[in-house]
Amino acid sequence: MLGTYAASGEIDIATAPDFAVDLRECIERADEVLIGIDCSGVTFVDSAGYHALVDATAYAALRGRSLEIRNPPPSVARLIRLCDVGGELRVEPSPEGAAPLVLR
Predict the structure, then answer these.
(1) How far, in Å, CA of 34 to CA of 31, rounded?
(2) Which of 15, 29, 69, 74 is most buried, with most CB under 10 Å away?
(3) CATH code of the domain covering residue 25
Protein backbone atom coordinates (compact mmCIF):
# COMPACT_ATOMS: atom_id res chain seq x y z
CA MET A 1 0.00 0.00 0.00
CA LEU A 2 1.30 3.41 -0.88
CA GLY A 3 1.73 6.07 1.75
CA THR A 4 -1.44 8.08 1.09
CA TYR A 5 -4.76 8.25 2.89
CA ALA A 6 -7.68 10.15 1.35
CA ALA A 7 -9.84 11.69 4.05
CA SER A 8 -13.30 12.97 3.20
CA GLY A 9 -16.44 14.40 4.72
CA GLU A 10 -16.69 15.55 8.31
CA ILE A 11 -14.13 14.51 10.90
CA ASP A 12 -15.86 15.23 14.16
CA ILE A 13 -16.72 13.65 17.48
CA ALA A 14 -18.93 11.09 15.73
CA THR A 15 -16.46 10.07 13.02
CA ALA A 16 -13.04 10.73 14.61
CA PRO A 17 -12.74 7.28 16.27
CA ASP A 18 -13.17 5.47 12.93
CA PHE A 19 -10.88 8.03 11.25
CA ALA A 20 -8.21 7.30 13.87
CA VAL A 21 -8.48 3.55 13.28
CA ASP A 22 -8.22 4.08 9.51
CA LEU A 23 -5.11 6.24 9.95
CA ARG A 24 -3.44 3.63 12.16
CA GLU A 25 -4.16 0.94 9.58
CA CYS A 26 -2.74 3.15 6.85
CA ILE A 27 0.39 3.76 8.93
CA GLU A 28 0.83 0.03 9.53
CA ARG A 29 0.38 -0.92 5.87
CA ALA A 30 2.27 1.95 4.22
CA ASP A 31 5.27 1.21 2.06
CA GLU A 32 6.56 4.76 2.44
CA VAL A 33 8.15 6.53 5.41
CA LEU A 34 6.21 9.72 4.66
CA ILE A 35 2.47 9.18 4.71
CA GLY A 36 0.27 11.85 3.15
CA ILE A 37 -3.23 12.57 4.36
CA ASP A 38 -5.10 14.12 1.44
CA CYS A 39 -7.70 16.41 3.01
CA SER A 40 -9.07 17.88 -0.22
CA GLY A 41 -12.36 16.05 0.36
CA VAL A 42 -12.74 17.10 4.01
CA THR A 43 -15.61 19.48 4.70
CA PHE A 44 -15.27 19.95 8.47
CA VAL A 45 -12.90 19.10 11.33
CA ASP A 46 -13.61 19.68 15.01
CA SER A 47 -11.34 19.25 18.03
CA ALA A 48 -11.87 15.46 18.03
CA GLY A 49 -10.66 15.30 14.44
CA TYR A 50 -7.69 17.52 15.26
CA HIS A 51 -6.73 15.24 18.17
CA ALA A 52 -7.05 12.19 15.91
CA LEU A 53 -4.46 13.80 13.60
CA VAL A 54 -2.13 14.58 16.51
CA ASP A 55 -2.48 11.06 17.91
CA ALA A 56 -1.84 9.52 14.47
CA THR A 57 1.26 11.69 14.11
CA ALA A 58 2.63 10.35 17.39
CA TYR A 59 1.66 6.78 16.42
CA ALA A 60 3.50 7.16 13.11
CA ALA A 61 6.60 8.57 14.80
CA LEU A 62 6.78 5.56 17.12
CA ARG A 63 6.91 3.40 13.99
CA GLY A 64 9.60 5.47 12.25
CA ARG A 65 7.16 7.22 9.93
CA SER A 66 5.88 10.76 9.44
CA LEU A 67 2.47 12.14 8.52
CA GLU A 68 1.92 15.11 6.25
CA ILE A 69 -1.43 16.82 5.86
CA ARG A 70 -2.02 17.72 2.21
CA ASN A 71 -4.56 19.92 0.46
CA PRO A 72 -6.37 21.15 3.56
CA PRO A 73 -9.37 23.32 2.76
CA PRO A 74 -9.25 26.82 4.32
CA SER A 75 -11.35 25.88 7.34
CA VAL A 76 -9.09 22.92 8.17
CA ALA A 77 -5.94 24.98 7.64
CA ARG A 78 -7.36 27.63 9.98
CA LEU A 79 -8.12 25.06 12.69
CA ILE A 80 -4.58 23.70 12.46
CA ARG A 81 -3.08 27.20 12.62
CA LEU A 82 -5.13 27.97 15.74
CA CYS A 83 -4.65 24.67 17.58
CA ASP A 84 -1.20 23.45 16.59
CA VAL A 85 0.79 25.87 18.73
CA GLY A 86 3.38 23.17 19.49
CA GLY A 87 4.02 22.43 15.82
CA GLU A 88 3.06 18.77 16.14
CA LEU A 89 1.45 18.53 12.71
CA ARG A 90 3.23 18.72 9.39
CA VAL A 91 1.28 20.48 6.66
CA GLU A 92 2.29 20.51 3.01
CA PRO A 93 2.91 24.03 1.70
CA SER A 94 0.12 25.40 -0.45
CA PRO A 95 0.59 25.04 -4.20
CA GLU A 96 0.41 28.82 -4.60
CA GLY A 97 3.86 29.05 -3.02
CA ALA A 98 2.69 30.58 0.24
CA ALA A 99 4.64 29.79 3.37
CA PRO A 100 3.70 26.49 4.98
CA LEU A 101 1.39 26.53 7.97
CA VAL A 102 3.67 24.38 10.11
CA LEU A 103 6.86 22.60 9.20
CA ARG A 104 9.32 20.59 11.24
Answers:
(1) 9
(2) 69
(3) 3.30.750.24
pTM of this prediction? 0.86
Range of the domain at 48: 4-83
SS3 state of residue 38: strand
The answer as to whether 45 is a domain residue is yes
